[in-house]
Structure prediction request, 434 residues.
Amino acid sequence: MNLIDELRWRGMLHDFMPGTEEQLASEMTAGYIGFDPTAKSLHIGNLATIMLLVHLQRAGHKPVALVGGATGMIGDPSGKSAERNLLSEDVLRENQEGIQSQLEKFLDFNCGANSAEIVNNYDWFKDFSFLDFLREVGKHITVNYMMSKDSVKKRINADEDGDRAEGLSYTEFAYQLIQGYDFYHLYKNKGLKLQMGASDQWGNITTGTELIRRMDGGKAYALVGKLVTKSDGTKFGKSEGGNVWLDAALTSPYKFYQFWLNLSDEEAEKLIKVYTLLPQEEIEKIAEEHKQAPHQRLLQKALAKDVTIRVHSEEDYNAAVDASEILFGKGDFETLKGLKEDILLSVFEGVPQMQVSQSDYASAASVTDLLSDLTGGQVFESKGEARRMIKNGGVSVNRQKVQNADDAVNFELLQGKYLVVQKGKKNYYLISVN
Prediction:
């Protein structure tokens, strides 16, 4: 597999230095990408970058993931309009561990010569004094060279509307030099000749290649992928609630699956090439079938399935599919009963929720009382309204039709404490019995 060709047809390739293609063709090449440990999980914006490493390994080369234990203490100014808060060593260490466990899901660490590897730049920076860094590294790169980088110029020259009026601290200004030294260190000590990343990292990466040339007379290469953006041009990877994380504790598998399922046709057709390893012929076939019946959302479903299984598991994917069907009136009591509590709560996150004490629940005279008085009128404002709708067959509890307004309250609670009430076709309520 030719890496450049593969990235090009997938729409992932933005730019690469002259000679990169020849280097990749000449020998197994070790290449790396840096990951910033400012959170304990990576998100799907990072996942696009991880896929660059995945394709590098599939093409027979050696992928190295650098977790920035040192650079994470500073903050990369690329694409930022303000300096961010700095994290403590303990928080960074916890974040590094979380990120490493996620990277291990995508890269093969036991496949011979091109086995993946994870390194941490804190290991070579922790004993590197400030004065030594200035003497050994800083003297090789001029201020003029550093000032020419877009990431620096955008922060120093405030926009007309003042969005970037905060300027740039020396800490962030020095970031490109520190990242450049990472590349030099890995080149010198591990033989790495390639650094990759998103397109907004081009300036930082080429500082590394320049440092290698000036400090060692060596030749190294840069390759950057396209920055994945939404149709409106904003960075991809965020939902209305914030980042879409790879950690199930931060973004549930159900919400993760739903994110992909809700993409537009245009986004799904583009991103199925970026986020899956499906071959070109299969993707083209799915895209053509999608055009014939767009309402079936075949592109979105194929993308959501592939990514959810790889990030989480097939079990989580199946549970997410079952959960998705619930709000469309599909699935029975057993389907509801099989949902884990976190998924159940995710599914019904936006519906009215209410609590009923265990004593009130146990003493409820009938289902009518439960759905009117005991829920504070949130399901039905009056017993009369409840009786009429039950009589017309419009009320279900835990997917089971309520047959009689005077039926006793003897439902099996989901997860030992929940009832899902459906009124009509689209109105749902979640009752928690505590």
